[in-house]
Specification:
Blueprint: H1 3-6, H2 15-42, H3 45-53, H4 68-91, H5 94-117, H6 131-147, H7 152-172, H8 190-198, E1 205-206, E2 209-210, H9 217-234, H10 240-261, H11 274-297, H12 305-311, H13 314-323, H14 327-340, H15 346-367
Antiparallel strand pairs: 1-2
Helix pairs in contact: 2-3, 2-4, 2-11, 2-12, 2-13, 2-15, 4-6, 4-9, 4-11, 5-6, 6-9, 7-9, 9-11, 10-11, 14-15
Length: 374
């Protein structure tokens, strides 16, 4: 750990970080469907545009919905310097922290497999890659790099080298089995080929490879490391308003780099391309700067409760949406309201009800101080 970081005074929990995490998770707990329907039903151009943003781009390109996953990994990275300092102070040793890092990473991989497949025991058709697995492995390797380097400069060099190395893999190699000359196409890219050769079970979400496959974990480490560099900076003694300014400048630079890199290495979430890391990393940093300015610098905090309730229990809502679901409860409480509106608006009422039930569940846990953490 950086000695300078360890000497900083103990900081209170960043409410902006919890709020931003909740804002991120809000869009996958049913809110995306709310806005898709709202755009379709109203025909308002701005809402129609946002509704279109609530879907994943099939291959090259970017929609706002493609940002949810990397933003969460970025936030997990930001949190690590804070939690690591507390663990080192409470437990008194790097060895315990290292065990925690390995255990958390591997547990997320296991939970991701269970999330995808339940307890089917159909091993030949299991999907082994997962969102949680990508987060677990990328965060784990980023944390190990962070813990075993001594300066922000060294960590930044690690991040840059990872992104360049990952790009060069695609420049040098392509899939040999389809004869597609495009190194970045669905068939021709080396990442999909490695999945086809090495990843057992079934794929998601395109037939030639897995969108959370093996090779892109390398570049995802850079996303986690970017978050950790940001978290370490937030722990510094720099004045808060200057932190906002520096984060904003860095965000803009990253976004420009991402768009320039996009000319030769397309922005692509499935491949987690280096340009994607820079573009989304810049957007993530910009969002954090805005939330930090409003919530932790200007102290406008009352409005954040809605998102903090979600952000304090992200793993809970992610698993609950898959394991429990809220359809029966939504039908029970909101079917009557749906009958009172024109039939075309019934799906919208149901979608709003679904989000409401999920949020009330999290609010109950929040009030009882029940938080699922790994």
């Amino acid at each position: 750990m950086n000695q300078q970081s360890e000497k900083q005074p103990q900081n209170e929990r960043l409410r902006s970080l919890d709020a931003l995490r909740g804002f991120d998770m809000f869009w996958i707990m049913g809110a995306e469907e709310v806005f898709i329907l709202l755009g379709t039903l109203t025909g308002i151009p701005a809402l129609e545009w946002w509704a279109n943003q609530m879907t994943h781009v099939e291959w090259h390109g970017f929609h706002a919905y493609d940002m949810i996953f990397p933003l969460f990994l970025f936030i997990a990275g930001v949190s690590f310097p804070f939690s690591a300092r507390k663990r080192l102070a409470a437990q008194g040793g790097r060895q315990a922290l290292t065990r925690h890092v390995f255990l958390r990473g591997l547990l997320l991989v296991l939970i991701g497999i269970l999330y995808n497949n339940g307890l089917s025991f159909d091993f030949a058709n299991l999907r082994y890659a997962s969102v949680l697995g990508r987060i677990g492995l990328a965060w784990m390797f980023a944390a190990l790099i962070f813990m075993n380097t001594k300066s922000q400069r060294t960590r930044a060099i690690w991040m840059i080298c990872i992104l360049i190395f990952y790009w060069l893999i695609f420049v040098i190699f392509k899939a040999p089995d389809f004869g597609d000359p495009d190194h970045y196409s669905m068939k021709g890219n080396i990442s999909s080929y490695i999945d086809r050769m090495l990843l057992p079970g079934r794929f998601c979400c395109y037939e030639f490879g897995d969108n959370e496959g093996i090779l892109p974990t390398i570049s995802a480490v850079a996303t986690g490391l970017l978050g950790m560099l940001t978290g370490e900076f937030l722990m510094s003694s720099v004045k808060p308003i200057k932190k906002v300014m520096y984060l904003t400048i860095a965000a803009i630079v990253l976004m420009i780099v991402g768009q320039v890199w996009n000319l030769v290495f397309p922005i692509n979430k499935n491949l987690w391309s280096s340009s994607f890391v820079c573009w989304v990393g810049g957007l993530s940093m910009l969002l954090l700067a805005i939330f930090y300015l409003i919530i932790d610098v200007w102290k406008y905090q009352k409005w954040t409760t809605f998102f903090v309730v979600i952000g304090m229990n992200p793993l809970t809502i992610y698993l609950a949406n898959r394991i429990i679901g809220w359809n029966n409860a939504t039908e029970f409480f909101f079917a009557g309201i749906g009958n009172l509106v024109p039939s075309m608006w019934e799906p919208f009422v149901h979608a709003v009800g679904y989000v409401t039930i999920g949020w009330l569940f999290l609010y109950f846990l929040y009030k009882k101080k029940i938080f699922l953490k790994i």
